[in-house]
Amino acid sequence: MFQSMRKSAMRLVLIQAAAGILAGAFAGLMFGSAAGAAAISGAGIGLAGSLFMVAGLLRVRTDATPGQMLARVLAGEAVKWAVTAAGFAVCSAGLDMHFLGLLGGFVATLLGYWAGLLPAVLGEAVRPPVPSAR
Q1: What is the pLDDT of residues 80-133, one digit of tens each?
Q2: What would the 3-class secondary structure string for the chain be?
Q3: Do residues 43 and 105 touch, judged by C-beta distance below 8 A?
Q4: What's the CA gap between 101 and 103, in Å, rounded?
Q5: Angle at 115 between CA 26 and CA 71, to 5 degrees
């Protein structure tokens, strides 16, 4: 179960990274290099939050109770929100980035996250048994 969880988590992060790169390239080509850089930065914010979340989840022991696992998920989500808020604060105020590009890159990583979850939702993890031919 934990190997499958690790594989799924890494797939999520890779899909998010690809979505962010595509968003940055699209924004750069369509709206200029400033928008492209902002989109890549927004994708980086989304990716950083996900990496913190995944790192927390991957540190769960194999003998953890459901309550301990839930505590890890909640702690990971809290850190993810904090990293996201800090990233937006720094990029919006400190670096004076193009906000729509920043938001577009972040949204691309969110879409990548949901696209990465689709196989699990559609039943990749639980396959029905194949009946034997008699």
Answers
A1: 999 999 999 998 887 878 889 999 999 999 999 888 888 767 765 555 556 666
A2: CHHHHHHHHHHHHHHHHHHHHHHHHHHHHHHCHHHHHHHHHHHHHHHHHHHHHHHHHHCCCCCCCHHHHHHHHHHHHHHHHHHHHHHHHHHHHHCCCCHHHHHHHHHHHHHHHHHHHHHHHCCCCCCCCCCCCC
A3: yes
A4: 5
A5: 120
Domain boundaries, the chain: 2-121
CA distance 72 to 92: 30
Contact present, 50 and 13 (Cβ < 8 Å): yes
Q: At what angle do helices 33-58 and 66-89 cross, to 10 degrees?
A: 160
Query: Would you say 46 and 105 are in contact if contact means Cβ atoms under 8 Å apart?
Result: yes
Q: What is the pTM of this model?
A: 0.81
